[in-house]
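Standup, Tuesday
Yesterday: got the pipeline producing structure tokens again.
Today: sanity-check two examples.
Blockers: none.

Example 1:
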Amino acid sequence: MNENCFQKAKRVVVKVGTTTLTHAGGSVNIRGVERLVKTLADLKNASRELVLVSSGAIAVGMGAIGLPQRPYDIPSKQAAAAVGQCELMYLYDKLFSEYNHNVSQVLLTRDVVEDEHRKQNVINTFERLLEWGVLPIVNENDTVSYEEIVIGDNDTLSAIVAKLVRADALVLLSDIDGLYTADPREDPNAQLIPVVEEIDERILSLAGGSGSALGTGGMVTKIHAAQIAGEAGIDMAILNGSNPGLLYDLFDGKAVGTHFKGGKKHV
């Protein structure tokens, strides 16, 4: 893809992080979700095929139940996810329907995407949903996941989904503007890196740990997602999810966030 790859992208996977969807206590950030949905609906109206990978199930479940902090034990995480996933899908369905768009839920685990037969079933389902104009909303199936089948974070999941659907581009909406030369929360001299041509040791060294108490990701998982996407020839961008309007700028060909260039497209 050339420098205008995002302008030309027809099929796009968008991943939204927990911090974009929720307030600090875990309750839903209604205004933030409404802005996101309105923007995605408008992009669909402009004939783009979208797949949304949505975090937030555990955090939203915490808010609904009234848990004071993110649970540490697996049963509690899975139970919170079960509650939160229901809340999230209700909200997405309600908001997207206001713009005459249908949504669907797709829950995945590692064993599904690594088994060739079941993976093909997933691919077929995605293709039919997109053919019908339905917006698939994807999350890991936290309620049944355990160590052997867990994917672990939705940055990685979004890159896997981008490969499955043969996306033209992957966009990660995060709580940061992109990849910096240092942690901008700690270093006022940190500079945004607009384009990453290749993920080398220098780029890998810039990754830190998890950036949010409610989320599971961080720059490490985002760079890993860029590696997975890049190996499949898929360009990836990191944008600040607090301003979904940046998606318009990205697809208008403007330089926003950090663009990780994909390699040669695999067929």
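Example 2:
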Amino acid sequence: MKVILASASPRRRELLAQIGIDFEIKVSNIEEKVIASEPGMVVEELACQKAEAVMRMLHNEEELLVIGADTIVVLDGWILGKPSSLKHAVEMLGCMAGRIHEVYTGVALLYRKGMGGKAVKQKVFHERTKVEFFPMTEKEISTYVSTENCMDKAGAYGIQGLFARYVRKIDGDYNNVVGLPVGRLYQEAKEWLEN
């Protein structure tokens, strides 16, 4: 069986490899459209769109598991995606400094056995992790943002790198904050992975 990660994220690649799953990368490049407004449903919807697009692209594969994922940061009910500019990243981090926010990652697992474009089985879920930052000075924020490690990350930070120095506490799955709750993913997919 082929396992496909429908994501270009290097962090998701590392996490999936870390738990011993052999997989290939196929990026959907779809235009994301969201109808939902509740954060958990938003990430599930986006994860499904990515996985479904890749499943359609690989309609000739006999047996296939496609993994789609999407991550957002939520502060006071506002969804923060990836920053649009360095200035936007500074604004995001300034708002989150010294406060608690939530990270949601949605995962869509689409499994197909046999030819055709539709998934035979699917599992869709999301994980939520609370993250608290220490207070940060303007200089600390601008120094971090100047590394440009913030531009491709929801909420403008990567917990697994230099930014770890500003994280006071995490309540939930650390890997979820990095971008893929691989423990839960494995538990949900193991009936297909272990066949």
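Quick observation on example 2: The chain has a mean pLDDT of 92. The chain is about 35% helix and 30% strand.
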